[in-house]
Amino acid sequence: MFTNKDYLKFIEESKNKKLDIVITSVVETNGSTYAKVGNMMLVNSQNEFTGVLGSGFLQNKIIESSKEAMISKKTLYFESIPADESSGHGNSKF
User: What is the pLDDT of residue 81?
Assistant: First the structure.
């Protein structure tokens, strides 16, 4: 599953620090999006992360959702929808 060396290094370092890790993955896209289905971002319980799924705003949303998932121990889903439909950006589900 994890062949990306950055992901493997992040997992190993987080494991050595005894930190929890949340994986966020793109599960669906519609239109033009930065991240594609299957792209991932890993976040640990110190809010350190590896991977990029979009803008700074979206990165912060993913970190906040990761915190919620670590606390609730549940799978969370959310959708990124551009505020301006004429922006040319599509929708992504995570």
Answer: 86
Buried b (16+ CB within 10 A) or exposed e, 61-71: bbbebbeebbe
Q: Provide the Cα torsion 92, 5, 22, 20; round to 10°.
A: -170
Sequence-ordered list of residues with C-beta below 8 angstroms from that of 77, at least 6 positions apart, any chain = 27, 93, 94
> Cα–Cα distance between 68 and 49 in angstroms, integer?
15
Local mean pLDDT, 10-residue blocks, the chain (94 residues):
82 97 94 90 96 88 94 93 76 91
Q: How far is CA 18 from CA 13, 44, 61, 83, in A?
A: 9, 10, 24, 39
Q: Where are the alpha helices (DSSP H) in 1-94?
A: 5-16, 56-72
Cβ contact 30:90 at 8 Å: yes
pTM for this model (two decimals): 0.85
